[in-house]
Design goal:
It is a single chain. With 550 residues, this protein is an alpha/beta fold. Strand 21 (458-465), helix 17 (473-482) and strand 22 (487-492) form a beta-alpha-beta unit. It is elongated.
Length: 550
């Protein structure tokens, strides 16, 4: 069994995870795995989403199993246990994930979809909060489009086709009129994006009049609680569309099922009247028939977003890492390895056919991609089609010849797996590797880039933090700086039936906290970005809280 990580703590929250919307992970068997998080290890059947060899990736990507999972993430409802207890992603409010994915979809799509635009418009008022909190939830910030397409709107008239008049009683005397709400109003309210009001003022003896209007909803509670809209500016006449979501978010205890009355009131010169010409909810044209937002449905379908594919490039590796479940099975326990598999250019084209592939990541479980002789051809092919490319490697085979091929192919990102700042620590974890060779190979690639006058591939490091190497982390930041590497990912250890739970730094919070704090301080001084896994960030916060409480 895997190590149990913390489930979602705040009711109604979700996992802020974009992987099921953007990143299919394809195994050597052709299976499409939900992701590689440790929380999936006990649910291998449930997280196998389909096979590319049965109709292609496009068919799997939009199947019912994927759509159900995406809807759960978008709503925070019925999250499966492997998402609920995932230690890779932060928890947060569903609106944050919805807005991020809607922005991502709209910004990256050539055809601007009006339903997705309506979804953005619904949460647009929360964009400042999104900008402020996205980074804390592991998201990058997507820009807010300057212009959003609109769907055909359905107008739900709340006046029953009749104009209503409000007789004003004075500048300091409140006057109002009530309008009964139609049956099913709570469902309409849940689907509406805006409320539209049109009015005209008629002056009495005072001449012109600019009324101060308010629209409110009244529930069925004894006190008749009111929740108010305010038109943005009083005027003699006007036609305004008011943001419904901003109103609803301001009253979190609102129960739409209890709303019974709409009330419009205001102040103005005595004897004047306000003719209410229109009071209506604006809904997408199919809102009466749809139980969910059309935009949400399109996000759940998955076909509109460009994807970043993780490809198992082969199923053989030239090192044997102590925290790799497959290395332990094959190299330590003697379990027979599966038949040799290598991804080919032909298979790559078959897998990606019909998909909008934004990036391709050549990686693998128990695999060294540089052992695949077609790797550089596949990289060049993908780049020629406008697909960004990335490779994760242990760096052992990164000779000058391979470095030149890598640069010539146009690779954009190279992630080196290296888990120690010294020969002793690094080689004790990556058995069969040579620390000096890896460091020298990184320097060679940087030299080739300088000779060619290019900056790519960008090099970053994956450093799997565990009890045996956490004390090396500050020194590793210095090593990365000396290699002109600006990005380090300090990844949490994936505990499984094969990997010892005692190695996880979750159980060694003091060592984790002390060394991460030192490394973060040093990284800031040197201009190195150090990203710490969410589960380790949470463990540090809990340790700090316990120290303060003590």
């Amino acid at each position: 069994m895997t190590l149990e990580s913390e489930p979602i703590r705040v009711p109604g929250n979700t996992r802020i995870c974009v992987l099921p919307f953007t990143t299919p992970s394809i195994e050597p068997s052709g299976g499409v795995r939900l992701c590689s998080a440790a929380s999936t290890f006990d649910y291998l059947d449930e997280t196998l989403m389909g096979s590319v060899r049965e109709g292609g990736l496009a068919k799997v990507w939009s199947n019912a199993k994927f759509q159900k999972l995406r809807r759960a993430l978008l709503s925070g409802n019925d999250l499966p246990p492997y998402c609920n207890k995932c230690d890779y992603r932060f928890e947060g409010p569903p609106w944050l994930l919805v807005l991020h994915l809607a922005l991502l979809t709209y910004n990256r799509s050539k055809q601007k979809d009006a339903d997705v635009a309506d979804l953005i418009r619904r949460y647009e008022h929360r964009y400042p909060e999104y900008r402020q909190t996205a980074g804390n939830h592991g998201l990058w910030v997507e820009p807010l489009p300057q212009r959003l397409e609109r769907t055909q709107l359905q107008v739900v008239d709340l006046l029953g086709g009749n104009q209503r008049s409000l007789n004003l009683l004075g500048e300091e005397t409140w006057a109002d009129l009530t309008i009964p709400l139609p049956p099913g109003f709570d469902q309409l309210l849940g689907r509406a994006s805006e409320v539209s009001i049109a009015w005209r003022s008629r002056a009495g003896s005072a001449g012109t009049v600019s009324p101060n209007l308010r629209i409110s909803l009244e529930d069925a509670s004894p006190q008749g609680t009111r929740y108010a809209f305010f038109p943005s500016s009083p005027a003699t006449e006007g036609n305004e569309s008011l943001r419904l979501e901003a109103f609803l978010d301001s009253v979190p205890d609102l129960d739409p099922q209890r709303l019974v009355t709409l009330r419009i009131g205001g102040f103005g010169p005595r004897g004047s009247t306000v003719e209410l010409q229109e009071l209506a909810l604006l809904l997408p044209a199919d809102a009466r028939e749809s139980a969910t937002s059309p935009g949400l449905g399109k996000l759940a379908e998955g076909s509109m977003l460009p994807v970043s594919i993780d490809l198992n490039t082969l199923n053989r590796c030239n090192v044997s890492c102590t925290m790799c479940p497959f290395a332990i099975r094959y190299d330590d326990r003697g379990i027979p390895k599966p038949p040799i598999y290598r991804l080919t250019l032909e298979e790559y084209d078959d897998i990606t056919r019909g998909m909008n592939v934004e990036s391709a990541h050549f990686v693998g479980r128990y695999a060294e991609p540089l052992m695949n002789k077609e790797l550089f051809t596949m990289i060049a092919n993908a780049q020629a089609k406008g697909t960004r490319t990335a490779v994760t490697s242990n760096g052992m085979l990164l000779s000058r010849k391979f470095a030149e091929k890598m640069v010539d192919a146009g690779l954009e990102l190279l992630t080196i797996s290296l888990h120690g700042a010294t020969k002793e620590v690094a080689e004790s974890i990556m058995r069969g590797s040579n620390f000096e060779t890896v460091v020298a190979n990184i320097r060679t690639l940087q030299e080739v880039k300088r000779e060619r006058g290019v900056k790519k591939p960008v090099i970053q490091i994956n450093y799997v933090g565990q009890r045996s190497n956490v004390r090396d982390l500050p020194a590793f930041v210095r090593l990365a700086d000396s290699l002109d590497i600006r990005i380090i990912h300090f990844v949490h250890l994936l505990v499984s039936a094969e990997v010892k739970e005692s190695e996880s730094l979750i159980h060694h919070p003091e060592a984790l906290t002390v060394n991460v704090r030192q490394a973060e301080k040093l990284a800031k001084q040197l201009g190195v970005q150090l990203y710490v896994s969410p589960s380790y960030t949470a463990a540090i916060a809990e340790f700090d809280g316990g120290m303060r409480a003590g």
